[in-house]
C-alpha cells in the first residue's frame, strides 16, 4: 500500500471513531476490526468449537460447489467480494471450473495476499485483482467485460448489514456482475439464541479479545489512551431485529482521549461494535428478490445452522 493510501485510510478510521463516539449511543463500525491483529484473531475465531459458521459453510461448499458449477455452467469468471484468504476460495473456483478469478477488496494488502495464495493453489488460473469499494457498482477489468460472471460472497458477511443496506449491496453486486449475473452467497440462519450467543462469546475469550482489539487499535493508531481494563465484551441476541450484537461495556465511569478528542462513558454504557444478522430461509428469498435476484437453489446442513444460496440476476434487462 502506498503511504498516501495509508494516510487516507487512517483519516477514515479517525473520522469514524470521532463520529461514532460522539453519538448518544456510541458505535464503532465493525469494518475496523480487521487490522493485522484483528485478522489473526478472526482466523482464531473460525476454529473455535462454538463458532459453527466457518466449518459449516466450508462443508456446504465442499459438498455443493460442484453442483453450483453444473447449474451455472463452466467457464465463468468468479468475482469474490472481499478477497478471501481462506480455503473456501480455491474450493469454489476449482469446483465451478472458473475461467478467471477477480478478487475485489479495498485493502491492497489483503488483495495481494489473496492473489498470492490462490496462484500457489491454482497456478494456471487467470487472476485479476481489483482494489475498490465493492459497496457501489464498479467497473471490472476490460478483459472480463461481456463474459458471464458469478459473484462469490461467503462467510455471511452480509449479516453485518441492516436489511436495507444488504439490499443495496446485493443490487450493487448485480450491476457490477454484468448482463448474466450469478451469485453464490453464504447466509447464517436464525436458530436457538443460546447457540448464537455462545458463538459470539466463546469460553476461551477469543471473541472478547477480537472485540477489545478495536480499542487497542484506537490507542495504537489514533494516539488514544483508552484504559482497556475499563471495558468488557458483551454479546447479546436482539430477538426483535434478528441479530447478535457485540458491545464493549464500560465497567466504571471512564474518560479518555482518541483522535484528538475527549470522550466520556458512564458505568454500564456501551460502544456498539457489530451486528450479525441471522436470517430465516423465507427472509433470504425476500432479500434476493428485493435486490433483483432470483433464488435458484439453496443448501443447508443437517442441523439447519447455515445456508448456501445460488441466485441468478434478472436477465440483464432489469432496472438498477
Ligand atoms: C465475518 C462478519 C461474518 O458476524 O460472524 C465473528 C464476524 N464477529 N465473531 C460474524 C465475527 C464475531 C463474522 N463475520
Automatic annotation (TrEMBL):
Coiled coil: none
GO process annotations (BP): methylation
UniProt KW keywords: Methyltransferase, Transferase
Keyword Metal-binding: no
Annotated Histidine-specific methyltransferase SAM-dependent domain residues: 14-312
GO MF annotation list: methyltransferase activity
Protein name: Dimethylhistidine N-methyltransferase
Species per Swiss-Prot/TrEMBL record: Sphingosinicella soli
Amino acid at each position: 500500500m502506498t503511504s498516501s493510501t495509508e494516510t487516507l485510510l487512517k483519516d477514515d478510521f479517525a473520522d469514524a471513531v470521532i463520529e461514532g463516539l460522539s453519538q448518544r449511543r456510541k458505535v464503532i463500525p465493525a469494518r475496523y476490526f480487521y487490522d493485522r491483529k484483528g485478522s489473526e484473531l478472526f482466523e482464531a475465531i473460525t476454529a473455535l468449537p462454538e463458532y459453527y459458521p466457518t466449518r459449516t459453510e466450508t462443508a456446504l461448499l465442499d459438498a455443493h460447489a460442484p453442483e453450483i458449477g453444473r447449474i451455472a455452467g463452466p467457464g465463468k469468471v468468479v468475482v469474490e467480494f472481499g478477497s478471501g484468504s481462506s480455503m473456501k476460495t480455491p474450493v469454489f473456483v476449482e469446483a465451478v471450473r472458473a475461467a478467471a478469478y477477480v478478487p475485489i477488496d479495498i485493502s491492497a494488502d489483503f488483495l495481494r495476499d489473496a492473489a498470492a495464495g490462490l496462484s500457489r493453489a491454482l497456478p494456471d488460473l487467470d487472476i485479476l485483482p481489483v482494489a475498490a469499494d465493492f459497496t457501489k457498482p464498479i467497473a471490472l477489468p476490460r478483459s472480463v467485460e461481456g463474459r458471464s460472471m458469478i459473484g462469490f460472497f461467503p462467510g455471511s458477511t452480509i449479516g453485518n448489514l441492516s436489511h436495507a443496506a444488504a439490499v443495496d449491496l446485493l443490487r450493487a453486486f448485480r450491476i457490477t456482475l454484468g448482463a448474466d449475473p450469478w451469485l453464490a452467497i453464504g447466509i447464517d440462519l436464525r436458530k436457538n439464541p443460546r447457540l448464537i450467543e455462545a458463538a459470539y462469546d466463546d469460553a476461551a475469550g477469543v471473541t472478547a479479545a477480537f472485540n477489545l482489539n478495536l480499542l487497542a487499535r484506537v490507542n495504537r493508531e489514533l494516539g488514544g489512551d483508552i484504559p482497556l481494563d475499563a471495558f468488557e465484551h458483551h454479546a447479546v441476541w436482539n430477538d426483535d431485529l434478528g441479530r447478535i450484537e457485540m458491545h464493549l461495556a464500560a465497567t466504571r465511569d471512564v474518560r479518555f482521549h482518541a483522535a484528538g478528542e475527549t470522550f466520556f462513558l458512564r458505568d454500564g454504557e456501551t460502544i456498539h461494535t457489530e451486528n450479525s444478522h441471522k436470517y430465516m430461509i423465507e427472509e433470504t428469498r425476500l432479500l434476493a428478490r428485493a435486490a433483483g435476484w432470483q433464488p435458484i437453489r439453496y443448501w443447508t446442513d443437517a442441523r439447519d445452522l447455515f445456508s448456501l444460496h445460488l441466485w441468478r440476476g434478472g436477465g440483464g434487462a432489469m432496472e438498477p
